[in-house]
Amino acid sequence: MKKPNRLMTFLLSLIGQSWAYDTVDEVQEVIGKNAFDNYERRVATHRRGAARLTDSLAFQPGLVALHDELNDTWHYLMALQHRARDLGHPALADSMKRAADNTVDVMTAVDQAAEQTVPAPEVPLTR
Fold first, then answer.
1. What is the value of pTM for the model shown?
2. Residue 77 has pLDDT above 90, yes or no
3. In the prediction, which pLDDT does 15 show?
4. In Å, what is the CA distance from 80 to each residue of 26, 29, 77, 90?
């Protein structure tokens, strides 16, 4: 797999471009490399952060921020879907639509989790 060197990456960024791979194998390889090369660091980082949470309300700011990031991701995927369709790439557009739909599912679950951070009010016992 040919990879861009730092100079090429920098030069492309100056003109608003980025590196694109020529084969499915190259795309799969770079996605896998990005995921697995950073796996241990990401696990450690997020576990350290989670270990500092002390009660349900402590989860809330992160979940609210995550929901906002997912919302932005949904808008990005929808924009990509529309552009792919405009350029005559229906299979790519359909993949973007599925990714956007899955993002809505994740966003809904995060929304529900954020709501569950609010402690339930105590209900007084009555006779």
1. 0.77
2. yes
3. 74
4. 21, 22, 5, 12
